[in-house]
Amino acid sequence: xxxCSLLLLQLPLLLVFTTTSTANIPPGSSLYASxxxxxxxxxxxxxxxxxxxxxxxxYTVSISHSTxxxxxxxxxxxxAGTASAxxxxxxxxxxxxxxGNLLLTNRSGATVWTSNTGNLGVTSxxxxxxxxxxxxxxxxxxWSSFQNPTDTLVPSQNLTVNQTLRSGVYSFRxxxxxxxxxxxxxSVEYWNQGLSSALKSTPPTLQLQSxxxxxxxxxxxxxxxxxxxxxxxxxxxxxxxxxxxxxxLRMYSGGTTTTTWAALADxxxxxxxxxxMGICSYNESSLSPICKCPSLNFEAVDVNDSRKxxxxxxxxxxxxxxxxxxxxxxxxxFQAQQIVTIGITACRVNCLSSTSCMACTSTSDTYVxxxxxxxxxxxxxxxxxxxxxxxxxxxxxxxxPNPLPSYQIGGDKKFRESRGWKVGVLxxxxxxGLAALVGLFWWxxxxxxxxxxxxxxxxxxxxxxxxxxxxxxxxxLHRWTQGFKDKLxxxxxGAVYRGVLANRTVVAAKQLEGIEQGERQFRMEVATISSTxxxxxxxxxxxxxxxxxxxxxxxxxxxxxxxxxxxxTEDQSGKLLNWKRRFNIALGTAxxxxxxxxECRDCIVHCDIKPENILLDANFNAKVxxxxxxxxxxxxxxxxxxxxxxxxxxxYLAPEWLANLPITSKSDLYSYGMVLLEIVSGRRNFEVxxxxxxxxxxxxxxxxxxxxxVETIVDKRLADQGVDMEQVMRAVQVxxxxxxxxxxxxxxxxxxxxxxxxxxxxxxxxxPKALMKGSTSGTxxxxxxxxxxxxxxxxxxxxxxxxxxx
Length: 806
Hints:
The protein is an alpha+beta fold and 806 residues long. It is 22% helix and 27% strand.
């Protein structure tokens, strides 16, 4: 158990004691490890400094938050570039000496830690309400805990280019360029991100705001660089940034159990996480990474701690060197030699023949690279099913792969069970072989026959019926769409074409553009999209992935997209939607988005809610389309970049897009609110803005609402068709709540559904504002990409000129 874990276990015990409220700490004051109930506290008792018991015989001194139960600073022990808490025994003493020095000594009186402020004129010490321990000479700060951080950054604490957060062999720094950097052993930088291109002349400062936004201060300007996923919410919640002993930088809210942001979404990308020659991977039963040795040629350095790495069982090869092959594995070679366009065989041979090369990785996704890991002899590995790379590491003598579970069976029993197993496999294999031959015969003879074509297509669609998307060939889709002739529309993701499968099923085939992912990554994203099943979502039937061809096959929606009916001209009056259908469409759309936000395994943020992406079936039921596609489009494709690097459509963008704030599910709420106003009015919001002298459509509508003239917002073409004004009032009020300036003021989509249905009462909404206050001119970078998951959006194209409906 590491120090932080033990510290958290002990903090609740400490809080049961009564602390001493001390604004100023007089010279000569002392704290004793033998009395952990004695502390120095901030004036409001939010923070306290005192001894904490690490284990039955060890103690350390730390500043802790009273209610969150977390340590924000500790007396550290930096040795050879590593950092850990300075630990002492039961007889330890922490003193504020009369000469102005802070001193930690053990039982024997030996110095364990000191502030080195003796004889510098220090006259007073105090722990303030922000958690900062300050030593002063009169009114001048001589030393403070904020200026000498350990592993944690809290609000009101600035991190400058001269300061470092440390935890074990890992360190975090703010570079003079403005980028943030994570480093292993002060030698290997494995993460570097920030806003260096936006910096001005002065050295930057990093600051964590109390609302959960990590900002860069430079020449008086404030630029957002990272955001907790609960930013702006929680009011008095304690937020802090901490460098963990696992090498990852995380933002927490309220304690160490709630992570709101992490520098690296994939823990296995942290250099040296599994130690030297250790391989980091995941299994199906746990989301936490596991560490293992490459093969039986290696053994664990410490059988009780897999993170300490591995070592070769035989170190002296005596010329008998072999390359151990590790499939779907890469070595994190941040300081490696890179060789372009060299195949896997040449990569292995070159490393084997080089005396300085310890290991190598050959990639095979999109481009072919060979990464050579040279001395020093430290290798950090990562293995995963989606990695399209093969790695090699030098071993002595013959390669010994890891044993299968059957190898653990012994004696004659092993032989008998092995023989029975082989017989069973032989019989089963024969049966399956015969079945395969029959299937191949039927495939080649009957596939293209008109008589059997429909039957073949139905068998193909059984895969989709089982919940998995069907993989279609590009040749078949080209034939079924008649060479992609019948174009239904086009948008930021690509063109959509009508097609008819062999079983007479009408589909819509979307040709995706800007796809840069490898085969496996694309399949994983498609699997995520296809796993969403809801009455108000368009169904994904299948996909095609051949070379550069990437297509998605959806169910065909007979009535097309909502915009064709909502924004009709006089000569299209027959396509006008009555109020009942409009309200049902608004409600169905909200239910579909609610499923994406709240009912999927991972929250899916659509990023482009607009009438073109709301499709209508034969009965005018609303179905949301194009969800989950934002993550498929690579930002490397310059055709899909606008000047503001925004994905979305003019008129539907939430203010946070333009104010450099994070894009969350609440951003979809804003877009939905604008669509809801359009459903009520029957007019494009930005077209109305132009008609009323550039005044924002939402501001004009709210003005009419304030005057009690809600009927002026309603589509005038519905005057003679009967409109339920109670439903109109609910829809208008919901739309105003959805388009509030700050995301935290907007309701969840689940609450929107309840408000539209009249289940819960709707409070009077405040006026929507034109722009977000306090927005900056700097460029924002959301460094978390849960890139996990589809909770943030990439850059995109300007508004499409035509419909992108399926």
